[in-house]
């Protein structure tokens, strides 16, 4: 029998961060990190450096699964904030961390890799028991914290295709949702420029690999002789509807009540929104810590805290874009009522 005690420090010490998973090699990769790195990183997907030295450890998936199966289960719940893209989830994650009262793992890349494997029907994802154990191991890695802080995961919306599997893998899962309305989502994409639009179109391809629900509608848009803006708006609508559909499917499967807020609620009443999410996730967030976080975070850019955030400037840009594209928006909304709402 394999001696699994050799992995105890690696699998329980928060300084060892689960950075990646190679499905073809069935191998997990860990690097050394520090609490401020995790706490301050808007994304743990490789965009910012996580490692604090050059140490890298690789562990076979079989060893990780065996360790999970022989480890005593704790009463600590997994916590997940599910969301659609560009809805304020990064800001929500920063607010929930308060003044160090919780630790958020924001968009760890391992979950993206697992969602991609699932979409491609990789052999590892076909064996239900093995797949469940892999997901459970990954979730356990994001319970690790310094000073016994409560933790939560804010996955990439790429992982929305994996939500049902995560619910199945975690009997004690607590989760919350933040989303936004369709027009705000469309304008946020347009306001973000080419990089954001390319991300959304890549996300659409991922969704189509995992689920064929709107494939006919995508093909119709691609084949139609549309103006570029009209084509883009319709494809973005499909991305939005797919994300909402995945969230609704997860809600149907989830155990217990689901805590849900919108971007508009977070912006208009951050105190009440934060309290609602904290209750839903069973996070202890003292009132003074919440107030301090709101004062600090609402005035800076969530993804780059070195930049000031001006809601008045963003609102003015939103109004300008909506007026400039009024005809295209109305045409796309009419198309949506006929071609997407009936499918949903």
Explain what you see:
This protein has about 350 residues and is of the alpha/beta class. The protein has one domain: 3-Layer(aba) Sandwich (Rossmann fold). About 55% of the residues lie in helices and about 10% in strands. Strands 1-2-3 form a three-stranded antiparallel sheet. It has a three-stranded parallel sheet with strand order 4-7-8, sandwiched between helices. The chain has a two-stranded parallel sheet with strand order 5-6. Helix 4 (about 90-95) packs across helix 14 (about 285-295), helix 9 crosses helix 11 (about 230-255) and helix 10 packs antiparallel against helix 11 (about 230-255).
Tally of separate domains? 1
Order of helices and strands: HEEHEHEHEHHHEHEHHHEHHHHH
Helix content: 40-55%
Q: And the CATH topology?
A: Rossmann fold
- The CATH first-level class comes to Alpha Beta
Question: How much of the polypeptide forms β-strand, as a percent range?
Answer: 5-15%
Question: How many E-type strands?
Answer: 8
Largest sheet: 3 strands, antiparallel
Distance between the termini: 51 Å
What count of helical segments does DSSP give? 16
On the 0 to 100 scale, the average pLDDT is 91
In what order do the strands lie side by side in the largest sheet? Answer: 1-2-3
């Amino acid at each position: 029998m394999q001696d699994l005690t050799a992995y105890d420090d690696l699998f329980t010490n928060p300084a060892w961060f689960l950075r990646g998973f190679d499905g073809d090699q069935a191998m997990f990769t860990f690097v050394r990190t520090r609490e401020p790195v995790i706490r301050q990183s808007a994304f743990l997907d490789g965009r910012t450096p996580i490692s604090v030295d050059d140490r890298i450890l690789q562990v076979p998936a079989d060893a990780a699964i065996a360790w999970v199966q022989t480890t005593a289960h704790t009463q600590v719940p997994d916590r997940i904030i599910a969301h659609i893209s560009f809805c304020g989830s990064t800001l929500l994650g920063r607010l929930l961390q308060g003044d160090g009262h919780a630790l958020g793992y924001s968009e760890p890349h391992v979950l993206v890799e697992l969602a991609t494997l699932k979409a491609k029907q990789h052999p590892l994802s076909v064996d239900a028991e093995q797949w469940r154990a892999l997901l459970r191991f990954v979730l356990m890695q994001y319970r690790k914290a310094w000073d016994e802080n409560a933790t939560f995961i804010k996955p990439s919306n790429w992982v929305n295709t994996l939500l049902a599997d995560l619910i199945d893998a975690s009997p004690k899962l607590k989760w919350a949702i933040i989303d936004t309305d369709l027009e705000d989502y469309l304008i946020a994409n347009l306001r973000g420029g080419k990089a954001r639009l390319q991300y959304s179109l890549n996300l659409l391809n991922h969704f189509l690999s995992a689920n064929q629900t709107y494939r006919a509608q995508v093909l119709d848009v691609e084949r139609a002789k549309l103006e570029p803006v009209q084509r883009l708006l319709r494809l973005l609508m499909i991305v939005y509807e797919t994300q909402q559909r995945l969230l609704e499917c997860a809600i149907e499967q989830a155990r217990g009540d689901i805590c849900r807020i919108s971007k508009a609620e977070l912006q208009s009443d951050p105190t009440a929104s934060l309290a609602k999410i904290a209750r839903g996730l069973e996070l202890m967030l003292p009132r003074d810590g919440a107030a301090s976080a709101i004062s600090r975070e609402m005035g800076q850019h969530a993804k780059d805290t070195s930049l000031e955030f001006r809601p008045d400037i963003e609102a003015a840009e939103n109004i300008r874009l909506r007026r400039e594209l009024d005809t295209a928006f109305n045409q796309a909304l009419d198309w949506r009522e006929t071609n997407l709402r009936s499918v949903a």
